[in-house]
Amino acid sequence: MSTRHHTRLFIGGSWVRPSSPELLDIASPHDGSPVGRAAQAQPADVDRAVTAARTSFDSGAWRLTAPAERIEALRKFNALREAHAEQIADLMSLEGGSARWFTRAGQSGLTRQANAYLKAAEEFAWEETLAPSDPASSVRSVVRREAVGVVAAVIPWNSPFSSATSKIIPALLAGNSVVLKVSPENSLSMGLLAELLEQVGLPDGVISVLPADRATSEHLVSHEDVDKIAFTGSTRAGRRIASIAGEQLKRVSLELGGKSAAIILPDADIEKAVAGARFGSLLNNGQSCIAQTRILAPRGRYEEIVAALAELVGSLRVGDPSDPETFVGPMISRGQQERVREYIRIGIEEGARLVTGGPQVPEGLEGGNYVTPTLFADVDNSMRIAREEIFGPVLAVIAYDDEDDAVRIADDSDYGLSGGVWSRDEEHALAVARRVRTGTVTVNGAPLAFDGPFGGFKASGIGREYGAAGLGTYTEYKTITV
């Protein structure tokens, strides 16, 4: 794919000259070659976008339209995105290093995510009249769900389209105006997102897409005219955003980090469970908040499971993300590469058994941000590699004594975003899943449900995305008595 350039910023529905003429050079994580250049937003650009959003919202140009009209506009956007699915997938591989299998498979997920939101909006109780609690009373209560206002949506670099659409679709369906702040690393794919939004024809001011650094991001979330913050990213950044929201009494929803556990029960089909780890634990080069990177194995089958996982991890094709045969591509940046390699060194220093992989860069790939997929055994849940989010292709196998012990270890974490249970007895697996304190649990590798709430317990966040629950977080209740 030829390089792309975005010399302007998408503010309020129009491409405008940025306040700074400097462009960011974007390099391929695969080999460091240039793949594009893009303008980056500064605080002055944020002010312009928020003012446009505030003016648009207060005028009612979008928020006062009928829900059916908003639904049709977002349905048009979804169709446009589907028509550009291949281009989107290619751009995410090019700028982010995500393997082609992942970026292409993710396109159908984006469709399912959007369709779930659209269905929820069609069935949503935008306004309802309550029956009086006192039959003798003539007072009627009309309950409305109205837009919150100006939404600052801030997303990370690891899965930009999914993070972006999980916020802008429900926010726009509810009638809000949105300023979407994206990571500089995603300037190219998010530039394409802006181009698609431009074609929808939303009223002026309703949507802006701004690539920007952390300092500019803080300026956005702190802005006095922002009514709600919707954030996906690290727990550390989430705590900072929560403090800002608390001080200013802004509405806030946070989808944060994870250190999820896959519980393999003694009766599980090991071949299927390990095959499931290929996708559930190592998706997107391991750079996924829902990755199940702690593998909990019964002591009676521990070495069997470790051997099967070693075969899997050692066989993964690492290399150029544009190659259809590649399963694991490079990390997003040199910094992330070094961070993951350092965690591998920490695991060795902590006394975990290095089964396969290690801190060395894969041979022949020294020019990129590559990490060797790594498996540790004999891991204690107190080790840093079992407690901290590594965000790379590194798995830790932890032994447990019985089912109660497995649930205890799974819950012994600051996080609670995702998890999995494997068993030949589906009902038994479901019973174990009910016990684990985490926001999402998959049984035997089932996919995420986009019509159900998605989010985390504990340090994994506040609030929920997807479906009716996700749509509701972008609304306020209003009660009118007549």
Q: What is the compact description of this entry?
A:
By secondary structure, this protein is α/β, with parallel strands linked by helices.
What does this structure look like?
Helix content is 40%, strand content 20%. The protein has helices spanning 43-59, 67-83, 85-96, 100-123, 160-173, 187-200, 214-222, 235-248, 270-280, 302-315, 334-350, 384-387, 403-411, 426-435, 467-472, and strands at residues 4-6, 9-11, 14-16, 23-27, 34-39, 127-130, 141-147, 150-154, 177-182, 207-211, 228-232, 251-255, 261-264, 294-298, 353-356, 374-377, 394-400, 419-422, 442-443, 461-462, 475-481. It folds into 2 domains: 4-256 and 459-481, Aldehyde Dehydrogenase, Chain A, domain 1 (3-Layer(aba) Sandwich), CATH 3.40.605.10; 261-450, Aldehyde Dehydrogenase, Chain A, domain 2. It contains 15 helices and 21 strands. Strand 8, helix 5 and strand 9 (177-182) form a beta-alpha-beta unit. By secondary structure, it is α/β, with parallel strands linked by helices. The strands form 5 sheets. A 7-stranded mixed sheet has the order 15-16-17-14-13-18-19, with helices on both faces. It has a 6-stranded mixed sheet with strand order 10-9-8-11-12-20, with helices on both faces. The longest helix is centred in the N-terminal third of the chain and has 24 residues, at 100-123.
